[in-house]
Description:
The protein has 137 residues and is an alpha/beta fold. It has helices at 22-33, 47-56, 71-84, 103-109, 121-133; strands spanning 9-13, 37-40, 61-66, 91-96, 111-115. It has a five-stranded parallel β-sheet with strand order 2-1-3-4-5, sandwiched between helices. The radius of gyration is 14 Å and the shape is globular.
Amino acid sequence: MTIPEKKIRILVAKPGIDIHDRAALVLSQAFRDAGMEAIYTGLYQSPEMIVSAAIQEDVDGIAVSLLDGQPLYIFAEIMKELKKREGESIFVVGGGCIEDRFKPQLERMGISGLYGPGTPLKVIVDHVIDMAKGTSR
């Protein structure tokens, strides 16, 4: 008997007061189409709410879609909350309108991906699969 491979579980998060959730919805569907379990948090999520949902849902990773111009604060708070709640095994990928000048700091925090508008969905999906399998960091 073959044991089926565990489905990747990804939380798609939309933090802050940004109401532009089209990308988060499209990503959620792309993850589902790739065979993952995608959980979308909805709008107006705080970093604490995002991490709480991630832990409750026992996800492998969090995909954050961010357009509000405060990536350093939002991602730092998510990473701080993950550490506080012993969720460091949960990887975090980011995307949205993130200025290039912020990317080195975000990568040092442990955020990967950092995809912008126009990135092919396959690139993002493949990256999440690699992260979940531990073949990328």
